[in-house]
Amino acid sequence: PDLGLRLAAVCGALRTFTSVLTPLLLRGLTGSARRLPVPHARVHSLPPEQKLGVLELAIGLTSCMVTFLLPAGWILLYLESYKKQG
C-alpha cells in the first residue's frame, strides 16, 4: 500500500510539473520562429498566349494514360504468374 501512495504522489507531482513547464517550453520553441521573416511569393498569372490544339491535347492525354495505365495493366496481366512464383 505504501508503494501505491508514493507512486500516486510522484505521478501527481510530475503532472503538475509538466503542466507548468510545457507552456514555457513551447513558448521558447515558437518564440524564435515568430521572428523569422517569411518571404511572400509574387506570382502573377496571365492567360495563355495560345490555346492548346487538339493534337497537343491528344498527345498529352495519351502519354498520361500510357504512363499510368500501362504498368498497372502489365501487373494485372501477369498476376497469376506472380502468384505462382511467390
Automatic annotation (TrEMBL):
It is a single-pass membrane protein. The keyword Transmembrane helix applies. Keywords: Membrane, Mitochondrion, Mitochondrion inner membrane, Transit peptide, Transmembrane, Transmembrane helix, Ubl conjugation. The keyword Membrane applies. SUPFAM superfamilies: Mitochondrial cytochrome c oxidase subunit VIIIb (aka IX). It is found in: Mitochondrion inner membrane. InterPro entries: Cyt_c_oxidase_su8 (IPR003205), Cyt_c_oxidase_su8_sf (IPR036548). Pathway: Energy metabolism; oxidative phosphorylation. Component of the cytochrome c oxidase (complex IV, CIV), a multisubunit enzyme composed of 14 subunits. The complex is composed of a catalytic core of 3 subunits MT-CO1, MT-CO2 and MT-CO3, encoded in the mitochondrial DNA, and 11 supernumerary subunits COX4I, COX5A, COX5B, COX6A, COX6B, COX6C, COX7A, COX7B, COX7C, COX8 and NDUFA4, which are encoded in the nuclear genome. Belongs to the cytochrome c oxidase VIII family. This is Cytochrome c oxidase subunit 8. The gene is LOC116548427.
